[in-house]
Sequence to fold (191 residues):
Amino acid sequence: MENVPVLLPTDRCLLRPAVASDHAALAAAVGSADFPYDLPLADLQRRGKLQAWFESMLAMSVDGKARVFSIDLAGGARCVGQVSLVQRDVPGSWNLAYWLHPSRWSAGLAVEAAQAVIRYAFTVMQVGEVWAGAALWNQRSIRTLDKLGLQLVEPNQTSKVVSSAPSDLHICSISRARWLQTWGESDGGLA
Fold:
């Protein structure tokens, strides 16, 4: 699938393709005292691998195996977070991930931006399903995934589909058919 640069506007944000210079914003967010120590991005930074990981995500975007969108605010702030889709080993299935600078938490921006990316995945990319996961202790992210309409994947289904998934993860998904049934008529908007 060809990766054509796409801009996704929302009420308060403009999601644009991530660029190498966005790494500084990622490092600042992950380096914030409020960013959870136990998240994978924080671990990558501690091990000195955050920039290499980010560069690999950008390379995957060029190859069409990922879409990484940086979140710019309508008021002018650049790259306050990112939302990404990464192709899974299962055809038509993509993983959703997101991060937001802690100073922007609790304003609904993660839901707003991720919903725009999910809408893009199902309507433009025509993917079959979107998956996401959050650590069980990360209730804030679990609530975000719930607001996005993703539903918990049963543990027996998870073990068949995600054989390496740790047992301390909340893994959920939404199919294109379910998304269209739930959000499609309102064009993916949230109440």
The beta strands are 8-9, 13-17, 66-73, 81-87, 93-100, 129-135, 151-152, 169-175. Residues 8-185 form a domain with the Aminopeptidase fold (CATH 3.40.630.30).
